[in-house]
Write a structure and sequence with these properties.
The complex is a heterodimer of chains A (about 500) and B (about 325).
Chain A (H helix, E strand, L loop, with lengths): L2 H12 L2 H18 L6 H12 L4 H26 L8 H12 L3 H35 L3 H18 L4 H15 L2 E2 L6 E2 L13 H20 L18 H23 L5 H15 L12 H24 L5 H12 L8 H4 L1 H31 L5 H19 L3 H19 L5 H23 L11 H32 L5
Antiparallel strand pairs in A: 1-2
Chain B lengths: L1 H14 L8 E4 L6 H15 L7 E4 L6 H10 L6 E6 H9 L10 E16 L7 H10 L5 E4 L5 H12 L8 E4 L3 H9 L5 E5 H10 L2 E6 L23 E8 L5 H16 L1 H10 L2 E6 H22 L4
Parallel strand pairs in B: 1-2, 1-3, 5-6, 5-7
Antiparallel strand pairs in B: 3-9, 4-7, 4-8, 4-9, 4-10
Helix pairs in contact in B: 4-11, 6-11
Classes of the chains: A mainly alpha (about 500), B alpha/beta (about 325).
Family (chain B): Belongs to the UPF0065 (bug) family.
InterPro entries (chain B): BUG, Bug_dom1
Protein name (chain B): Tripartite tricarboxylate transporter substrate binding protein
Chain lengths: ~500, ~325
Amino acid sequence: MGTFEFLLQGVAIAAQPMNLLYALIGVTLGTAVGVLPGIGPALTVALLLPVTYKLDPAGSLIMFAGIYYGGMYGGSTTSILLNTPGESASVVTALEGNKMARAGRGGPALATAAIGSFVAGLIATLGLAFIAPFVVKFALSFGPREYFALMVLAFVTVSAAFGDSTLRGLTALFVGLGLAVIGIDQQTGQARLSFGIPDLLDGIEVTTLAVAMFAIGETLYVACQGDRIPEKVEAVKGSVWMSKEDWARSWKPWLRGTFIGFPIGAMPAGGASIASFLSYSTEKQFSKHKDEFGKGAIEGVAGPEAANNASAAGTLVPLLSLGLPTTATAAIMLAGFQQYGLQPGPLLFATNPQLVWGLIASLLIANFMLLVLNLPLIGLWVKLLTIPKPWLYAGILLFATLGTIGANPSVFELGMLLTFGLLGFAMRIFGYPIAPVVVGLILGPMAEQQLRRALAISQGDVTSLFMSPIAAVLFAVAVLAVVVPLILRARGKGEVLSQFAANED
Amino acid sequence: MKHFFLASLIAGAMALPAFAADYSIIAPAGPGGGWDQTARSLQTVLQDEKISGSVQVINVPGAGGTIGLAQFASQNSGNANALIIGGYVMVGAILTNQSPVTLKDVTPIARLTGEYEAIVVPAASPIQNMQDLVTALKADPGAVSWAGGSAGGTDHIAVGLIAKAAGVDPTKINYIAYAGGGEALAAILGNQVTAGISGYGEFEAQVKAGTLRLIAISSAERVEGIDAPTIKEGGLDVVVENWRMVAAAPGLSAEQVAAINADIEKVVNSDSWKEILKTKGWQNTYLAGDAFKAQLDKDVASTEAILKDIGLVK
């Protein structure tokens, strides 16, 4: 049987009424748990995996796929509505999505996230079915130096995409990079800048920083304004559905996000956060509405959400074809597969075709269920924002705190949350963008580790960094990304550029 | 009717002690890893075998388990319902992080499972066996790059022991630390490094598919079902086992410790536990009581010695 027949057979099994019900239950459970702030997809899957053990293999795979996709989508809902990202990949979603929500466009933001996730999930799952072997080959050609080049590209494009002042953007980025070196150095096992505090040994948790900077800083900022500012939060302005213009502005970012997310997700050290960052800066480049970025541009939700979901399907490429779990979520999935006596790896497609295609078909079904479940719920979700402002922000504070304690029950973590909240508050007052701080904390350690691995392997030879064709191309693109705007500016187009540069807040 | 309710309430209350304890298990790592899986497996068996009524797993990630350990020891003194998962990686992490809380501050109950280290090279590598690898290592230690898990962990310690046994200065080894076996595996498959070292389970599928060559396993004797010589057969006296254990809170009475020991023994002897070990590829290395404590002291001493040799502990 060819690929296509296997897939059809898988879909036929997954589309049986009982299995559809399992998919619906899975998606509902996943969304419900994923919506809790601070709980990312990994923890959602870990908590709910035992539920699937009671079913037959087909049913449990299907429910599992539902939980997985539901958990991811639930996370973006809280990012958009409450500005409390539950994992590093939803940081970008919170950036534009929450601005949209507070401008009364929470409905379209949630809708573009849901439909974008669906489109990306659909294309990426089909990609998983048909081109996984080729993608794996490409992904494995990435060694430390190629990853380092990719990180450099991400740094350059992302820091250029944030804020209207390069200096302020870079300052914020370096605050993040400074925070990133705290903790045990992975290559030597030695503690850095931890000042003897055990809680700092593992570095600063990205979600703690993101929730503090976004949610707590925001709440303090709103609180200190008192009654002086007019009521800015509008629950619903216009339709809760996407307008014709929203569709027109969303479909290209969905596709671009998918094509950025899938290959990067398939890379063993890629991951959804890099994909969502790159998608965000790409959308800002391509958008005709650059002035809206930082104020709630729908492209800035559509692209990264699609990239996030495509990257999740991309993660399954190394998992299924190499047995390589590249994220915490994938590691839990691996544990799940082993329950059915399924050993992911190079032989899986040959030894267990029914189960593999069953899983891929389940993902398609779960993806569809997610849309069915969530589109009608959007009207309900945005009602959250009609809560009077003091209550809403009190609620945000409560959930931000609960989420942080839930993920890491420690008093010190709570102290960090509040300290970073104050930092975010101060940065807002003085007009510094806050997203680069989070970006620095996420990308900094990855870039550092990859650079040091590359140099250790080459025994200190710096030129070897540029000796691989892939790395050389990536470095060249990064250089172009810096140089081209400078040339444009020198040729008198600077005004256009600065007009495009949006205010972060 | 009233009496009936009362009676059933009393009966219910009397029935409760049949479930000895409602355990809460701390997995001192994020979800997905070996400790988390051990904690959740223990949870499943304790509940399914009706040894405990309800069992809760709490993830306290960080710093090789020392964060969770410190929190566990300080908050649970005298609490007979609290358990923590730990293992060999924790022994190393306590030393490299100079953790103020050590395994002496908790009550070790039993060693549960273990996994041996496997040394692999890419299929295209000119290195055919352990002797080839040792020859290359002796010629230029820096030119042999090893991919494995976190610095100071079991994988790193094993490489240090191999270098030492081969007469190579352990501080000269070129060890490339990855966040986990998965990321390291990608580097090995992509021919980025000379050799890879991690738990056998991480490499099993690739070895069977022929994309990796398994050149040695770190057990004392050959392991059934694994087609590879031991490091000993390769001429180096090195045996490493990455074991996992369960420990209880400090300040417990002898009866309380005995009760926990009995519960864990029931788990280990149950069919569902054996089934889990089989599906996850874990070796049963159950060792409890004083024998375990003696073994633990031995492991701590030898780990400290090798970490000093590698230069990770001063």
